[in-house]
Amino acid sequence: MTHVSMLNAWAPMSEAEREQFNRDGYLLIPGVLSPQEVDFYRGAIDRAYTSSPEGAAGVALHQLSAVTHCPELAGLLDHPVAFSYIWSLLGWNVHVYHSHFDVHPRLRTERPFRWEWHQDGGRQNREIETDPRPRMSAKLAFWLSDVSQPGRGNLTVIPGSHTTNWLPGPPKRTMTFPQPADAVELTVNPGDVLLFDRRLWHARSDNYSDFTRKVVFIGYTYRWITIRDEVAALPEQDWFAHLTPVQRQLLGHAGDGSGDHTWGHHPETTPLYGALSERGLLDSSRPYLIP
């Protein structure tokens, strides 16, 4: 649910933003969510957490298939400001292939060392032969807690590492190993959104602060790549009927059978193509946005 209208809704990313993203592999977009939106989505996560076994135990929750397990998060799928960065990068033939919301309370005891640095995409990073490997997908992180200081479970990244296929690390993840020299612990405020390339090497820092880390991650890719999220039964869910056509597309719905196909052969029956066309946002200069 979006509570306020925004002047830059549906505006494509600027050339300066694109240049920065291509250079660094990520882009921090401040103040995307209004305070009312932060309260709404944080409240939804709090209720989902409280009703979970992890919430009862007061431990961290990493909940896959975010909207399936917390339908109130559906408004983030195509948030009119944040989602503009996705179709600007990937075009209209996209869906959400992977999502999760995380709640990380303060760690009361020191956690044993574990090497957590990784690129998103799983086996893509071993089975695609090119160097660098292709982008394939991009992720939005919607921050709902105050991570404006280090040590609060911040996302830690290596700027520019999205063009590097391999990162030196220990033989085993449990073996102590130095932090990468160029690592940056990102500091963000509630309502900020982080856009990042799936190839960006990143890890989560441990949270020993009094702040509980709360964030929603939504990963987008082309519809010819299989969805990881649990979405097969969604059309039978009552709340699914209230979603917009674009939101249904993003959750894997292939349309009404009138011609839409996940390979994009019938753009005129693909909801996001229609939404961009109506707004004059298709762009012949970019292959993935050609009218």
Structural class by secondary-structure content: alpha+beta
Number of domains: 1
Shape designation: globular
CATH superfamily (homologous) name: q2cbj1_9rhob like domain
> End-to-end span in angstroms?
29 Å
Examine the secondary-structure arrangement and name the CATH architecture: Sandwich
Task: Give the SSE order as H and E letters.
Answer: HEHHEHHEHEEEEEEHH
Q: What is the CATH topology assignment?
A: Jelly Rolls
Largest sheet properties: 6 strands, antiparallel
Oligomer: single chain
Low-pLDDT sequence parts: 1-5
Give me the side-by-side strand order of the main sheet: 1-7-4-9-3-2
The CATH class, by name, is Mainly Beta
The overall average pLDDT, rounded, is 93
Kindly state the number of beta strands: 9
Continuous helix count? 8
Protein name: Phytanoyl-CoA dioxygenase
InterPro entries: Phytyl_CoA_dOase-like
Pfam family, one: PhyH
GO molecular function, one term: iron ion binding
